[in-house]
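Following the same procedure, sequence and fold were stored together, as reproduced here.

>
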Amino acid sequence: MEPQAPSAEELAVWALQGAIKIRCHNFVFVTLRSSSVRNLYGVFATIKYLSCVSLLKSLYAFKYHADSGKDIPAKHFDLRTEFQRMGVGNADGVGRYWRFSESNRKFQLCATYPPLLVVPSKISDATLTYAAWYRSKARLPALCYLHPNGFSMTRSSQPMVGLKQARSVQDEKLVEAILATSEPTGTPPRFQYERNNIIIDARPTTNAVVNRAVGAGSENMDHYKRCRKVYLGIDNIHVMRDALNKLVDAIQSGDGKGEETVGVVSRIQNSKSNWLRHIANILEGAKAIVEAIDGGNHVLVHCSDGWDRTAQLTSLAQLCLDPYYRTISGFATLVEKEWVSFGHQFTLRGGYLGHPDRFKVTRAASPKASSKSHMSRRGELTGDSASIASSSNENGTDENVASEAASDFDTLLQTGTSMFGRFATRAFRGVQSRISSAIQAASDDIDDTDPFISEYPELQPNYVLPPAVDSADTADGSSTSKRSNGFRLGRPKHDHETSPVFQQFLDCVFQLWVQHPTMFEFNERFLLDLFYHLHSAQFGTFLCNNMKERSAVDLANTTTSIWAWMEQSNHVYVNELYQGDENKRDQRTIAPNPQFVQYWSAMFSGYDPAFATRQASERSSSGELLSRPGSVEQLPSTSDGHSKLVDELDSIVI
């Protein structure tokens, strides 16, 4: 049973409704329309080709540096200088029991740690080598912040405990030496067993226990004296990614679907993204670290591998403890130390190397059934003239008839009152759901009659180059080489490692900035520009996954630093309400309030510095909040209801 050919009028309507919908990382939603579906396919293929790069050096940051970035003075970060500022290496100060170690100068100890480490003076490099074997990815406990009161913040990855409860004497000795650095003699007291120092495990307890099955886990506190362990319950990168996707889908759901009257607030709350709950959990963990160190205790922080949740917690805690990090130059130092040097995976988490599976073709339904159309999470091409879907299966059975038959059978099962009848109903529904999902995902036997799809087969979702099969003789005697169908089953895993980790950190900094508006030298524009360039790939600051990769591509000399670029217009980022004074003890430490967090309206409204007006720049330089940077006057929206986003997001506070 062949599908009915559409009329010329229907093709014209479908062509006019065809569109390319692009979701940008900075929450700008762009819709491109054309009366020619062929032109849409051409634009789609071009965007896809330019976005999907396989080499890091193909990114814009390297070309920008070659063209104009060389005119910007270089700005290099020195890890040794920063630790010396804290007092490390000072024979008379709080850092007298710490030393610099170059055991990782060629990344032979840990490939994702910086070449220079700070460890207790009593620990030899040989002990560090054995201790590293016990930690995931060899990320052993190392100093990241030394408070003026002599107590430290160290970071690491999870221990490799496993089901057999393995232990490492060298790792235990290293942790014990860290706790002893605040003692007058630098040695642990013999008869003090108070467990005031804290080992922070950022994961939920269940996750830590489950990791034992793969040889990891969490510390056995019977072997770590004078400290206790606290689980923070912060979810992993996959939960955070799903939360952001739900939030963005809720914001975008009013685009052309007649849901503008519902309001952004209601859509966000109905989405159950839990984005604010995740932000509050991270702030709660940072608050626990701040209170512990400020109260005179050591803290060791880790999650699984120690480069996502750990970086969030250590950075936020230092931002609260040290007023230097609340300055513009200090914040740059903090990011370079905790994120860049200690190996946050910017390339993987940001997904800078594009993947073709992010570009999906959605076969939109006809105008009569437009309510059934769905939209991809990523950039997509939707054209009604490319959506001639067959309403029959291969055997000529109408799908509606099959659906009605299934419904009748389900009704028949529901009439049973016995336990078997109820069990059969649930079983049938489960089987029916799995079969429906398989039919929807599988396209091996679909006969595509769309001429445009035939011309652009690579635009189809899950398309792979079909392997050639043996030659076959045609009717006229010529030999032709055939290829099997180019579609396959399976869920793409190109976004498996992407997650808004650094974006969450900036969101938490914004919450602190709102709660303590006079304690930060920088304004909101500073954070918004950092978020924008996190995904712009214009600067090398947010490229590569660790220092070893950065050294391999000579990132410091082949790309431009965003801090050097920002330094040229520092006055734009100055907060005139700033009253910080490092010499005032009562202003040194600030505390986050996890009970008061709000949606960052300027970020989620799709702020783009390239479209910002001069008036907005003048307001930001005078210290005024950028309350409406994404309004329709600055950035046209694809939805009538999107212009209300900023005001409505500001009203959501927990």
